[in-house]
Amino acid sequence: MHVVRRAGGGMQRHVATILSGSRGRFDHTLAASADFFDSLPKAAAEGTDFVRVDIGDRIGPTAFVQAVRIARHARRARADIVHSHGYKAAVPGAIAARLAGTRSIVTGHNLFPADASRAAKVSMRLAARLSARVIAVAPALAASLTAAGVDPRKIVTIPNGVDLSAYGAGSRRSVRAGLNIGDEAPLVFCAARLTEVKGVGYLIRSAALISARRPDARVLIAGDGPDRESLRGLARRVAPESVMFLGHRDDVSDLLAAADVVAIPSLAEGHPLILIESMAAGRAIVASRVGGLADTIKDGENGLLVPPADPEALAGAIMSVIERPELAERLGAAARRHAEKEFGADRMIAATEEVYLCALS
Predict the structure, then answer these.
(1) What is the pLDDT of residues 242-265, one digit of tens each?
(2) What whole-number distance in Å separates Cα of residue 348 and Cα of residue 360?
(3) Any idea which fold 164-342 has?
(4) Virtual CA dihedral for 175, 180, 186, 187, nearest 10 degrees?
(5) Within 13 A of 94's CA, how many CA atoms are on the CB side?
């Protein structure tokens, strides 16, 4: 039984990959919100039993009430393992597993905040203590859990994975035509939830610097979130002709095929799927030197790293890729090779299944 808080983006795609890729060896039940289940790809939703559980963004007294409900569902489903995704689901999921007399696994998808409250740290340590294993999707994330007091012997690092065959085959020309962007215009792509931690505001400010040198350059931003209107307002003020907001998109692989550069300007980051997807697509990446981004990108080899919250450095690195096609090609080819070696979906699924089997034994 997978227990998931209200979430989208990378966490949803991660869960969907396990649901579809591990079917046959394991049966799956999903305890999540209705909108989470309804937005799953068909391959993940078919054959997955669903029970509605609404876990919000706060850890509080309701966690125990949720745990009792989840435990009841787990017993009905005869679940052998309760696998909680995300820190908000970790506490009710782990308690539910104990109440149901089954095993608990927790996956952390983002860095555990260094400035988290004492209550949050105690809750995470409790969830880890009740669990057979805690999966971290990047070494930096594992380090953040250890710093929060989680026993490092419980932590296993399993990088996110994607279906590599789904990337690199899109039509650059047709996608650009649909966006009314010329074949020769430099195109920078960013996919992120529109929140402060993703650093999109700094990318918008860098767009103003980029357009001063290349007026035909365009910055595409895919995603939605609570900062949408403020970021749109910023773009209207500093780069009205350069920045395009696409909203939520399910065709990231096509958008990557049309891009020249992928920007990941996060202020803090675990191991975002857009990083892996960009590598799988063979795109040149410019990213902040933080968290799992710095774990994965070797500066100058398979991408470029810049200080976070620095629009000038971000713009300079992006322009170096735009102005040097041979650099873009070299970085993209190295990124693809790294993805093939480390980030295939089959590799992630096999490692996760091994954690399940070890927990059961």
Answers:
(1) 999 999 898 999 999 999 999 999
(2) 19
(3) Rossmann fold (3.40.50)
(4) -50
(5) 22
Distance CA(92)–CA(71), nearest Å, equals 9
pLDDT tens string 171-223: 889 999 999 999 999 999 999 999 999 999 999 999 999 999 999 999 999 99
Domain boundaries, the chain: 2-161+344-360, 164-342
- Cβ partners under 8 Å of residue 286, min gap 6: 261, 262, 263, 264, 303, 304, 305, 306, 314, 317, 318, 321
Three-state DSSP at 52 gives strand
Architecture of the 2-161+344-360 domain: 3-Layer(aba) Sandwich (3.40)
Q: Which of 85, 72, 95 is nearest to 13 (CA)?
A: 85
Alpha-carbon distances of 153 from 26, 89, 147, 221, 266, rounded to whole Å: 26, 21, 13, 39, 29
SS3 content of the chain, % helix, strand, coil (to 5): 50, 15, 30
Q: What is the DSSP letter of 299?
A: B
Burial 51-89 (b: 16+ CB within 10 A, else e): bebebeeebeeebeebbebbbebbeebebebbbbbbbbb
